[in-house]
Amino acid sequence: MSKLELGVCYYPEQWDRSLWRDDAQRMAEMGLDWVRIAEFTWGLIEPKRGTFKWDWLDEVIDILGEAGLRVMMSTPTAAPPKWLIDEHPEILPVGADGKVRGFGSRRHYCFSSEVYLAEARRIATEYSRRYGQNPYVHAWQIDNEYNDHDTVLSYSDAARDGFRRWLAERYGSIDTLNKTWGTVFWGARYSSFDQIELPNGLVASPNPTHALDFARYSSDRVRLFNRTQVDVLREFSPGRDITHNFMAGSFEFDHYAVAVDLDIVGFDSYPLGNLLGSTLSDEEKRRYLRTGAPDYQGFHCDLYRSQGRGRLWVLEQQPGPVDWAEKNPSPADGMVRLWTWAAYAHGAQTVMFFRWRQAKFAQEQYHTALLRADGSQDQAAVELAQVVSERAALPEATRAMAQVAMLLDYESIWAADILPHDEAFPNAQIFREWYAGLRALGVELDFVGPQDDLTGYALIIIPQSMIVSPGLAARLMDSQTKLLVGARAGSQTNNMHTPQDLAPGELTELVGVKVQRVESLPDLAGETVRLEDGTTHEFTGWREIIETRETVIACFSSAYRDGSPAIVRSDRATYLAMIPRGPLLQAVLANALNWANIPTSQCGPDLRITYRGELGFAFNYGATSLSLPEDSARSYLFGGSEISPYGVSVWRDL
Ligand code: GAL
Asked: Which residues constitute the domain of residue 636?
């Protein structure tokens, strides 16, 4: 099915029973298809070990189902009950500061705890035995937001023990580990796996391979935790889709690896909540204070749609002000509708709003919802009604494969965090910036991971891939695709060593350069890059001094090695000896797209255009009306060629 479906996150346990039937009726009348429930209910369902109180949840599911709603049930492992923590306090996670994080909120568990893994399996079994075959339960969410509150990395005793076992399995002998980590450095030799500690609380920076292995180990634990529950659900609830809700801007575990085990990748979309804490400039934050960044929805939906092999759902959509950011402005009227259509346009099948009714007590009272706490409709409900009437006008449509793919690899992001060489190295932010730059030029994107099929694209963009394995390099070579390769690519081996023939290591043959030296420059250096068309752009940050026999198409103007190559091009690859940003990035991207024969259009800062199959969508994130470029004849399904502030137009090309 590829029509937009709509849903809501519902917490019946927080409301009097007498409201449930009316709530369900109203949900159905408002055009909602799905209700997600129960992700924080363990302590209510099993108030003490082995005693279960299912009656109320049975009743809720019946009421929702009888109203015609499809239920997404959740496993409740994001909030273990107090009695379990009292029984096994070692379940609690430990921060990098060595402090145990206590009971009383949520996510108070450590992924390394074998006790908790067994408990998670047990409770997932209980929930799925009870509801797995329930005719109203059509899908499952496992747990809730794995890295919420920064809980993927935990420095507990269980993590230390698990890490030691993981290392013993990976390396076989301590000699191999010593060699791989390079523990001859600072005389950090180990004589057994039992001597190895976690890489926190040290005097200076940890050994990089030690730190990277801990990131890998922690990521593997997330996958194992998720997979354990997937296996249970597959057994007791066959045929139901299984998902988990990934977060925006979260890179702490390998999302590709977790996604492989899921049927649908879920995404929790909070465009305003994530704005102020982002790395956008103050000017951009002011401009998009009430809309969110224009590429927030696109970036995450494209990334998670790709990881979901085309199957993406927004499991939580911001409905109005949230309660958890440093400041919580209201979105402009119209934005909830716009975000919903933007998610759909970028491939989401379903959009669920967080939440049904604003809470009356406890932690999230200032978080808005479809309804206010008194049950009256808030602005999001008004916009939902508009979406419901609009969706009836749209034919089904499925997103096509893009011509351009962006390679995003979690290990390389961890590696650059471990060895930044520039305190302000933009790292994960590089992906957002390049994505936004490409979208401003009207380019559609898929994402690929290092294990993915790379064939069929006209251009693969590699913003920051420090670690390039021989296998990935071979597949890039075989893909026959043109490549745009950012600095640092291939600069570390899988073990975080400098490659034998220096950077870009495995990519040397493909890109035809050798990196002789790297430096990082502060903004005050005031240096520039001169492009082949004679234009000059300010440049700062990461710079490489490279040697090449390929064509140099841009040079640095610098007080050091003036005229050294900044961009080099061969038949297959364009290599950047820098991390371009701002206007320089825009110029570099436009140049590379032209080289790869990818058509572009000028969308500017506020207009975004994307296609879902034959349906064209345009979104205006700005406060003034915009006209669509007149490059195609269109038949509008709603909206028109003039798009009002925060407006949406949808059409078919004629
Ligand atoms: C999400 C979380 C929800 C709720 C929401 C509020 O991160 O999954 O349970 O807390 O934030 O915006």
From this structure: 607-653
Dist CA 248 CA 354 (whole Å): 15
CA of 182: how far to CAs of 123, 142, 216, 378, 497, in Å? 43, 39, 18, 59, 9
Q: What is the DSSP letter of 545?
A: E
CATH number at residue 266: 3.20.20.80
- Helices 174-181 & 208-236, crossing angle to 10 degrees? 120
Share of the chain above pLDDT 90, in %: 98
- Residue 520 covered by a domain: yes
Q: What is the pLDDT of residues 310-334, one digit of tens each?
A: 999 999 999 999 999 999 999 999 9
- Together in a domain, 61 and 109: yes
Does 341 reside within a domain? yes
Q: Tens of pLDDT along 358-398? A: 999 999 999 999 999 999 999 999 999 999 999 999 999 99
User: Structural domain tally of the chain?
Assistant: 3
- Tell whether 129 is covered by a domain: yes
| Ligand 1 atom nearest 270 alpha carbon | 12
Q: How far apart are the first and last CA of the chain?
A: 24
| Alpha carbon of 524 to ligand 1 centroid (Å) | 40
Question: Of 37, 40, 268, which is best to mutate to test ligand 1, by the most ligand atoms within 8 angstroms of its C-beta?
Answer: 268
Model pLDDT, residue 449: 98
- Work out the average pLDDT over 416-445: 96
Give the Cα separation of 518 and 544 in Å (integer): 4
